[in-house]
Predict the structure.
Amino acid sequence: MRLTAFLILILSLIAVTGCERVGRMTGAPSKTSLPDYYPAGTDKGEKVAVCYGGATTSMEALAAAAAALCKEPGSTVEFVTEDLHLNECPLLKKRRAVFTCHESR
């Protein structure tokens, strides 16, 4: 009986939050703010930051999401750094990766 009530409660919460909101928190990589610091020797080009789930996102999907955020269409990206704490990413996509955009030639 308690299990049934618990399941109904969980399903109701999911329905109330909406599929879009759940997808933003658990789905594909998404844009976030840039960190205040970068490793020494980092390229000075345009930077983009992406939130992702470490267990569910491949590096190829992460790079494709970062490239889509670059201002120049068709840009390639280079991984700069990542962090896991004190960032604005949702709890289920807590990792933040930073990439440098390079114009395609």
Q: What stands out?
A: The chain has one domain: 27-102.
